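fyi for ur records
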Amino acid sequence: MTAGLSAHHQRIAQRKREAITAAATKLFLERGYDGTSLAKIAQEAVVSKSTLFKQFPTKAALFEAIVTEYWKGGPDPAAPATQPGDLRAGLSAIGRQYADLIGRPAMAALFRIVIAELPRFPELGRAQFELGKLPYFISVQHYLEAQHAAGTAVVPDAESATNQFLGMIANYVLWPRMLLADWSPAPADVGHAVDEAVTTMLARYGRSAGDPQHS
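which gave:
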């Protein structure tokens, strides 16, 4: 019974947390980061101020939680399905995961908040980079380094290769959305963009079984 109640309370707490982060994102976009108070966020989320302050004692802590949750909302690119082996399959899986992650309206909203407030609140940019983009980037870099170490790819500069791969996808999926309110490519078009990025990576970094250096 105690375990059941605990699980029930955890679900309620999680729903309230999600309501708070959704309300904060909406208000940050509408009113700006500086123009949004924690009290107003609590009102928008329909939670008590004590509930909000218990989870997020400061607005900065709330923003950092939003960044962390949004970037962890997608599958882990270092999951077993993308371990060293089939480079095409691994890159395809990572590419689709990344496209799904940055293609969500919530991710575009997060970038808009950071860009709009960066001149006055540079710490928002640091949070977005250090808590969100950088950990994800490093996980993909480690995957490419593992492929290189396993001999299934030739990637002497995994950092540069990661920039190239994720950049090709973001340039189609995310950045047009920042300027075009109606940018919403069809899943097939997103899939094609990912496939093209994978093909480019294979041409540059792939190593076939017939490669004399493959041993």
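The chain has a mean pLDDT of 87. thats all i got for now
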